[in-house]
């Protein structure tokens, strides 16, 4: 399958197609966020033997819309001694960072908003925006809880970038490219060609499968840490820090943080999908594959990862700051390093 | 001295700025309106000063102005998650003062009810402890089971939380006909959930890492601070008033006193205090089963209720093993129908006093866990 | 080193156990219900809102006296022999006191049930109704007395006339107790 941007094909490479290319992910993001919020509400409820929201719409499916409307109506409070400029800017920085990541996500062989040959690198670069947003918000709130949350968040994200980057680097080595479309293409074919199972190759590749499985696990864990999800939600751990960095936020600005969190969840899920689950590739080789099916496979794989994140959130307790650092530096990093070396050797030798 | 400054640095003299953080009275994990003034060095707790009194309701003063039976509803409101256990020492103290002997059936119902309430209390304690560590789901599983227990209370006494069920000399009313079956079913359900919680939460490695070796309370410190209940037993001291000083009919039952053994950490850490509660639920189940078996069906639960509660001149201190520790009532009677003085020895209050001692030097997140492991109820701390 | 691998394995293993448990709960029967539409049954002896049956209440004020929070407010007027109504109670006996005011402040009531147990005529009872919240504090004060204000006025006047007559008759020998007895509050 060749890769292209279908908008460019239809209307030619113009400003219009670029704007449309940027708009499509935004629409997707909004729809996705509503679904994910509903999913979070419902899955958490079902796990806890509750019914969850049932009033708004049949089975409460309109609940996320109601939540957004509620947040829109809320008074926008800025604490008296807050740094107004930074305080107001922080949620937008965070959201921009999250949304910018969507620019390179290949939803289908026929559509990636922007075709950059450094896609992976780019995602990690804009992903670091979130830290700036959090630190800004936490510091500008003039609240000790927010400040503690922001500090925790900065240290957490920085230390988890490293094992995360190592994992992604391994994938780049396996695919021989940093371009997300190329990485997806490199895994075309049935599901045993995914990097989760060692990538395409003769059956002798079986011995690397444990390493790739381990790698994807490591990436799963680091992605949880980078999106501040349980068990790594210590920057906002509500039992200690009340709300962490967004303690002082209300109304739409809080909603921005909220949206950004969900957008980030999807971004890390899609990176995991692209890097290990074959991106838009159908698991059955040629069967059900195509430009349109690509979107389907991609979103459903990513949504499965999002489901995993939600599931984990409602299962596990929260780790502590020092344990988080221990896990990041002393467990994930060495394991990732070992896998990186082994897989690079495999790549050179075969 | 002529040493070069930047080489010869005494690190202990470097003072980083301490931050004073007010935790509460409106905070998700202070279990009520407790205010903790915390001094932090980075994230390390260097000092904790608990400020109490936000829920002070003058229990002791009110008790001097109402008649003996009217005190019972106020007693309920001290430790509102285990009201039955609060009523027990009060009514038994007055009964002892008046020399009333209650019928056997009343004793059995009282024991069953207090043990059920002990289970409910421990379930809340474990649930909120898990919540402090960040686990939300076990919280709701335990609350579901507690709800079933509350249904039994509601059916028997008419109220879910604040019962006014134990009266001086008897009970407000007899239990309903299917009481025994209901209780046995609950015991089964509680055991099932206990196993599940053990697998889901207690032996989860993250949870163990969060709570083991955190907030270690050595046995001597615990005794010096007069801690009681699971806080004391978590430190390995085998002291339970039901065994050591059997009141009511507790000498008729066969049960054990679980103590902290340092299974996954040090003796007396937060995990130990919690596991003591887990094991106590199991022991309470055993007591309930035996009590249901022995309980006589016939008997008038109100036959020993005095017409006028007017204890003779005198004073008494009577203590019982509350789920949170030793709850004692010191009552002085001057022969009137109103007590001259009622003093409550509240276990939560005493146990809370040990918090600064055991939380210095741990991280801020640990402080919350330690507070959760002490299991306080502010209604009882402030009274 | 072995400890390190053991603890890493324990992390992984116990997380999987937890995930398995929560996953089975995902499909288990839900215990919550759609509250206003469905309800769990409330036992008949539930101690919820109080209800007074005015024709049973003889105005003895025992309930007001026993209430630990003093939230019952009772005022009575004596029934004079000259009363044209010749009122009877629910059980057919002669009524001795008019209950002109019987207010319960449910904002104060702690639902202890003491008032229901002391009442000699079982005039006050707990109901199973617990949904009576109100936007104002006044909304929580329930006036149970069955008498209208005109009636109260009339009875008061009757009583005053009668007591004045009595006084005259007894030539001021016996001092009457205050004309209107007040509740404990
Ligand atoms: S239930 Fe208790 S508090 Fe309420 S009115 Fe009756 S005696 Fe007073
Ligand atoms: S309700 Fe009962 S106790 Fe109260 S005044 Fe009437 S008859 Fe007396």
Give an overview in words.
The complex is a heterotrimer of chains A (350), B (383) and C (185). Chain A has helices at residues 6-11, 15-47, 63-73, 84-101, 119-127, 129-140, 144-175, 180-186, 209-226, 238-241, 251-276, 291-313, 321-349. With 350 residues, chain A is mainly alpha-helical. Chain A folds into two domains: 1-73; 76-349, no CATH class. Chain A starts with 5 loop residues before the first helix and ends with a helix. Chain B has a single domain, classed as Cytochrome-c3 Hydrogenase, chain B. Chain B is globular and about 70 Å long. Chain B starts with 18 loop residues before the first strand and ends with a helix. With 185 residues, chain C is an alpha+beta fold. In chain C, the strands form two sheets. Chain C has a three-stranded antiparallel beta sheet with strand order 2-3-5. In chain C, strands 1-4 form a two-stranded antiparallel sheet. The N and C termini of chain C lie far apart (75 Å). The B-C interface holds B 66-67, 69-74, 76-77, 137, 141, 144, 147, 151, 154-155, 157-159, 162, 164, 172-173, 176, 196, 199-201, 203-206 and C 7, 10-11, 13-15, 17-18, 21-22, 25, 31, 40, 42-43, 45-47, 66, 68, 110-114, 117, 126. The structure holds iron/sulfur cluster (2 copies). One iron/sulfur cluster is lined by residues 52, 57-63, 74, 118-121, 123-124 of chain C.
Describe how the helices and strands are arranged.
The complex is a heterotrimer of chains A (350), B (383) and C (185).
Chain A: H1 6-11, H2 15-47, H3 63-73, H4 84-101, H5 119-127, H6 129-140, H7 144-175, H8 180-186, H9 209-226, H10 238-241, H11 251-276, H12 291-313, H13 321-349
Helix pairs in contact in A: 2-12, 3-11, 4-5, 4-6, 4-11, 6-7, 7-9, 7-13, 9-11, 9-13, 11-12
Chain B: E1 19-23, E2 35-41, E3 44-51, H1 59-63, H2 68-76, H3 83-98, H4 104-132, H5 137-157, E4 166-167, E5 170-171, H6 179-202, H7 205-211, H8 219-224, H9 230-234, H10 241-244, H11 270-294, E6 314-322, E7 325-333, E8 341-345, H12 347-352, H13 355-359, H14 364-374, H15 378-382
Antiparallel strand pairs in B: 1-2, 2-3, 4-5, 6-7, 7-8
Helix pairs in contact in B: 2-3, 3-4, 4-5, 4-11, 4-14, 5-6, 6-11, 11-14
Chain C: H1 2-26, E1 50-52, H2 62-66, E2 72-78, E3 97-105, H3 114-118, E4 124-126, E5 141-143, H4 149-170
Antiparallel strand pairs in C: 1-4, 2-3, 3-5
Bound molecules: iron/sulfur cluster (2 copies).
């Amino acid at each position: 399958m060749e890769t292209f941007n279908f908008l460019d094909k239809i209307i030619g490479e113009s400003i219009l197609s670029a704007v449309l290319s940027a708009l499509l992910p935004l629409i997707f993001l909004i729809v996705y966020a509503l679904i994910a919020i509903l999913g979070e509400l419902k899955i958490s409820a079902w796990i806890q033997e509750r019914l969850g929201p049932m009033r708004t719409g049949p089975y409460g499916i309109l609940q996320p819309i109601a939540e957004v409307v509620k947040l829109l109506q809320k008074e926008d409070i800025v604490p008296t001694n807050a740094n107004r400029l930074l305080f107001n800017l922080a949620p937008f920085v965070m959201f921009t960072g999250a949304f910018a990541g969507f620019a390179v996500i290949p939803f289908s062989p026929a559509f990636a908003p922007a075709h950059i040959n450094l896609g992976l690198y780019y995602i990690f670069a804009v992903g670091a925006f979130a830290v700036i947003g959090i630190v800004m918000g936490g510091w500008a709130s003039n609240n000790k809880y927010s400040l503690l949350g922001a500090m925790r968040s900065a240290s957490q994200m920085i230390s988890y970038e490293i094992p995360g980057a190592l994992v992604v680097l391994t994938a780049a080595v396996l695919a021989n490219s940093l371009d997300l479309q190329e990485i997806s293409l490199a895994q075309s074919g049935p599901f045993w060609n995914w990097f989760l199972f060692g990538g395409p190759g003769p059956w002798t590749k079986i011995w690397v499968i444990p390493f790739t499985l381990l790698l994807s696990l490591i990436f799963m864990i680091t992605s949880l840490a980078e999106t501040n999800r349980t068990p790594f939600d210590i920057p906002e751990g509500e039992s200690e820090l009340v709300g962490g960095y967004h303690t002082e936020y209300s109304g739409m600005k809080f909603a921005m943080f909220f949206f950004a969190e969900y957008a980030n969840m999807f971004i890390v899920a899609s990176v995991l999908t692209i890097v290990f689950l074959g991106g838009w590739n159908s698991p059955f080789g040629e069967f059900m594959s195509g430009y349109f099916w690509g979107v389907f496979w991609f979103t459903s794989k990513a949504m499965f990862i999002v489901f995993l994140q939600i599931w984990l959130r409602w299962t596990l307790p929260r780790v502590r700051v020092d344990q988080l650092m221990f896990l990041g530096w002393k467990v994930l990093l060495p394991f990732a390093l070992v896998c990186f070396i082994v897989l690079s050797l495999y790549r050179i030798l075969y | 001295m002529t040493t070069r400054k930047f080489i010869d640095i005494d690190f202990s003299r470097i003072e980083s700025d301490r931050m004073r953080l007010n935790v509460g009275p409106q905070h998700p994990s202070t279990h009520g309106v407790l205010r903790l003034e915390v001094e932090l060095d980075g994230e390390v707790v260097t000092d904790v000063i608990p400020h109490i009194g936000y829920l002070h309701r003058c229990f002791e003063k009110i008790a001097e102005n109402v008649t003996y039976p009217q005190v019972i509803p106020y007693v309920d409101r001290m430790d509102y998650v285990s009201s039955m256990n609060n009523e027990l020492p009060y009514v038994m103290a007055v009964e002892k003062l008046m020399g009333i002997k209650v019928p056997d059936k009343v004793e059995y119902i009282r024991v069953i009810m207090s043990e059920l309430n002990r289970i409910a209390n421990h379930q809340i304690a474990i649930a909120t402890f898990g919540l402090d560590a960040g686990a939300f789901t076990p919280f709701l599983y335990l609350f579901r089971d507690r709800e079933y227990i509350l249904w039994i209370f509601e059916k028997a006494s008419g109220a879910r939380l604040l019962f006014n069920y134990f009266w001086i000399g008897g009970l407000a009313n007899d239990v309903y006909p299917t009481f025994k079956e209901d209780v046995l079913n609950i015991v089964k359900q509680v055991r099932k959930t206990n196993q599940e919680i053990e697998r889901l939460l207690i032996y989860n490695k993250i949870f163990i890492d969060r709570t083991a070796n955190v907030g270690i309370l050595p046995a001597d410190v615990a005794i010096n601070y007069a801690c009681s209940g699971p806080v004391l037993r978590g430190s390995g001291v085998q002291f339970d008033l039901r065994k050591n000083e059997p009141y009511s009919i507790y000498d008729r039952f066969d049960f054990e006193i679980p103590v902290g053994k340092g299974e996954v950490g040090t003796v007396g850490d937060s995990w130990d205090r919690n596991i003591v509660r887990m094991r106590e639920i199991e022991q309470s189940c055993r007591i309930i089963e035996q009590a249901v078996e022995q309980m006589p069906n016939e008997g008038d639960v109100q036959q020993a209720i005095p017409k006028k509660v007017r204890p003779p001149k005198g004073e008494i201190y009577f203590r019982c093993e509350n789920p949170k520790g030793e709850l004692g009532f010191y009552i002085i009677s001057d022969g009137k129908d109103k007590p001259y003085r009622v003093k409550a020895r509240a276990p939560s209050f005493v146990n809370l006093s040990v918090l600064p001692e055991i939380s210095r030097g741990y991280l801020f997140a640990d402080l919350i866990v330690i507070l959760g492991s002490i299991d306080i109820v502010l209604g009882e701390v402030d009274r | 080193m072995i400890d390190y691998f053991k603890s890493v394995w324990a992390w992984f293993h116990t997380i999987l156990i937890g995930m398995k448990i929560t996953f089975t709960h995902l499909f288990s029967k839900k215990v919550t219900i759609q509250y206003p539409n469905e309800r769990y049954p409330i036992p008949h002896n539930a101690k919820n809102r109080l209800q007074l049956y005015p024709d049973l209440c003889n105005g003895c004020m025992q309930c007001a006296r026993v209430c630990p929070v003093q939230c019952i407010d009772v005022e009575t007027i004596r029934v004079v022999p000259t009363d044209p109504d010749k009122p009877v109670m629910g059980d057919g006996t002669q009524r001795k006191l008019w209950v002109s005011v019987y207010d319960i402040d449910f904002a104060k009531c702690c639902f202890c049930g003491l008032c229901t147990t002391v009442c000699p005529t079982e005039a006050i009872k707990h109901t199973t109704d617990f949904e009576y919240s109100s936007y104002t504090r006044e909304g929580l004060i329930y006036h149970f007395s069955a008498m209208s204000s005109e009636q109260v006025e009339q009875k008061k006047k009757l009583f005053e006339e009668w007591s004045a007559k009595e006084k005259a008759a007894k030539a001021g020998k016996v001092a009457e107790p205050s004309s209107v007895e007040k509740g404990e509050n």
